[in-house]
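Q: Sequence in, structure out?
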Amino acid sequence: MKACMFWILVILATAAPGSDLRQSSDQIALGIIIDTSWSCTDDMPNIRVLSRQAFSACDRHSYIEILSAHPGKTRIRLAQTIRTDSSQEVKNVSEILNKINTGFLSCADISEALDLAAKRLDTASRQKGFDDVAILIFTDGRLSDTDSKQVVAMSEKLQNKGWHVFVTGDSQANRHLLIGANEKKLTWSLISEANPVVWLKQVVEGKPTKQPITEKTAQSEVLFGKAANKSKQPIAPGRESANAEVLEPEKVVEPVITEAVKDKPISTEESAPMKAPTAKKERIEDASKQQEKRLITNLQKIWPWLAGLGVALLLGIVAVVMVALRNGRQWQSSANSLLGANQSKTEGALVIEFNGQKYGLGQLSRFTSADIGSGPNNTVKIPHKSVIDKHLRLFRKSEDLMIKNLARSAIIISGTEVKPGQKHKLSLPVRIKLSDDVQFSIRLVPNKIPSNSKRSDEDEATK
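A: Exactly. Output:
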């Protein structure tokens, strides 16, 4: 009897945990796509809340993936099966959602994110045996026409497989999303009225997913031109709707029509379906309009930053000007002293002293060259047997005063030997020794040559 009771307890103990692993009818494969476009910045807090609600609404052993759509790429933020259904899992998801932020002046590719989510959920649903699959796209709906058309086309294919696609948006959502919702290719809702808990409950129970019409959505339908006509007439491509489903005439809530809407005449172009224009022309016009719309929206968001940057630059320029005016005299004095120091190096007369005689070579700033030797054609003539016809050449090279040894023997310049044919830079005053019996000095005399100085024979002849 004890052995029988033991085996009964073992069977019950092993069967109890297994019951949790069996697929429940409430288990679902869920994909959440978050739009990170710059225009979703104000809606991002609401998007995070809706994502947490969707995660919390899933039962244990449901599979969930969270993807963030970016320009040209999609990032997978979460891919897991709900195991404990505890607050810790919700907390972990909240931390992941808080790290998802919008990009600066970016425009996310929602269709690419939807395609990736569909492929991954298809694999997960086949491997884990999920019958119910849903994809929630949390966005402001301000997509480009190309992106919107691709989203609608993919949503129609997914719904034909029995999947459910839900898209949110605001009053400026792309019209192609609204047209697709009216044609029941997807389920659309205002982001302020979205309820993912109700959506997922309706998916599990197999009920049609219809968004309840409130006074706000009814007014939006009037503005988009839907609720004015209660019959099932097709909506023209130029018309927009704020509701995702085309309701039966008897279920439509009478909207509150304002006086402005009543007085507005309804043109035949708005009430009749739009004629299909040329495909290429339509794409060009739609793309330009969508780009202008995105640009205006982005500029409205960043203009305070641009204004602040402009004010900061203006204040910086004013500060620099004030500092320059305050320190202008000091800067001018420093500049004058620096210029004066540079000018002092080239101001004054160049003088050669030999045997008590002084030979003026003119202002150093205008000096070019002078020859020194025993010949009659030299600038400075030194009649001595040890001095050849052209012994030295004195010249300027840029701002430097140079000397070249033209003799066949070395000369001594302030203790430095300069061999024949070599050049040497002079630092005035300087003393030059041609031989044991002949030596002279070169110096710079300020302002002008002294009155007792004598010119060379050649200078006097020139006069």
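Residues 317 and 323 are 10 Å apart (CA to CA).
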